[in-house]
Amino acid sequence: MDATVTIAVLLGVVSALGYAAGALLQQRVGDRPVPQLLRLPRWWLAIGSNGLGALLHVAALRFGSLVLVQALGVLTLVLAVPLAAAVGRRRVGRREAAGTGLAAAGLAGLLLLTGSAAASALTSHELVVLVLAAALVLTVAAGRAHGLTAAAAGGLAFGVASAITQTLTVRMTDGLPFVAPAVVAVAALNVAGVLLTQRSYRRGLAGPLAVGTVANPVAAAVIGVVLLGERVRGGTTGIALALLCAAVIAAGVQLLTARRDLHTRARSAHLVRSRPVRRHRRAVTRPAGRGRPVPVPLMPR
Fold first, then answer.
1. Is residue 2 helix, strand or coil?
2. Nearest in space to 152 (alpha carbons), one of 78, 208, 87
């Protein structure tokens, strides 16, 4: 591993820590509408933590390939789950531990297989096509996305934003006509990603965070391979191993999603059990015919 890749990895690790802290803070106020969130210091602290993570992420993109830096995003998941358990003063559950471990192992494998090519840039034509495609997908998803779907859409937005950001770091000297629209696109995609991610956290942290964490590098991998010419190490064998790693990631996400579903059902059951039961007085009866009792309606008080 050369010096530039080492710098990219170190920046990516600290960036993941910032994102993990921001995700935890967002989840704790996830059931609030946006107007209320704007008045909460905790939410702005989450935005600041995510902002710090984003700045370090941009720096990492300057030193490493898109796929490599985005794959480091798995550390957000690895750090956030135990961090949430620590804040909630509980132990990490077996499902959470297994799901987090599988997701981390799968993405670490992808990290090793994607190589360590230097940062590369999109052409102007590729940039326009990518922005239009992302805008179309996110516009369709915005009105329908909830829970894990919102998390996937948010991850897609962040992945595309990172690809454009890397292009900006490489082509910053190309002049205002290129830089200005790209900056606007990055800002819009990041805002969309934050709002979609916030919506996904309304039903818990682990499942949505896992889906978003996976969707982000998957989007980056597609962009890197299709548009930037990044390759998987090992040829056909490397591709097979990459698919195996993707299956391991999917298994980890499934475990974390199941953990979220169990938590939601348990909470619903608790709410049902905790509802007050209205007690009714037993109806007074009087004999009717052959000694059979007939209920006498009680007048309301």
1. coil
2. 208
CB 257 within 8 A of CB 207: yes
- Per-domain boundaries in the chain: 3-265
pTM, two decimals, is 0.68
Residues 6+ apart with CB under 8 A from 25: 42, 43, 45, 46, 49
DSSP structure class, residue 119: P
Radius of gyration of the chain (CA): 25
**Phi, psi angles (nearest 5°) of residue 184:** -60, -45
Please state, in angstroms and rounded to a whole number, the distance separating the CA atoms of residues 264 and 271.
11
Q: What is the pLDDT of residues 149-196, one digit of tens each?
A: 888 899 999 999 989 988 888 887 777 778 888 999 999 998 999 888
Query: Residue 165's Cα: distance from chain center in Å?
Result: 19
Enumerate residues 6+ apart whose C-beta is below 8 A from 199: 145, 146, 150
DSSP 277: P
Cα maximum dimension of the chain: 102
Q: How many CB atoms lie within 10 A of CB 265?
A: 10
Query: End-to-end alpha-carbon separation of the chain, Å?
Result: 82
d(CA 263, CA 250): 20
Would you state the pLDDT for residue 14? 93
Decide if 157 contacts 193 (C-beta within 8 A): yes
Q: What share of the chain is helix, strand, coil (3-state, %, to 5)?
A: 75, 5, 20
3-state secondary structure (DSSP) of residue 294: strand
pLDDT of residue 258: 65
- For residue 102, count other CB atoms closer than 10 A to its CB: 21
Residue position matching structure tokens 């559950």: 93
Residue 116 is encoded by which pair of tokens? 């360590």
Number of H helices, E strands in the chain: 11, 2
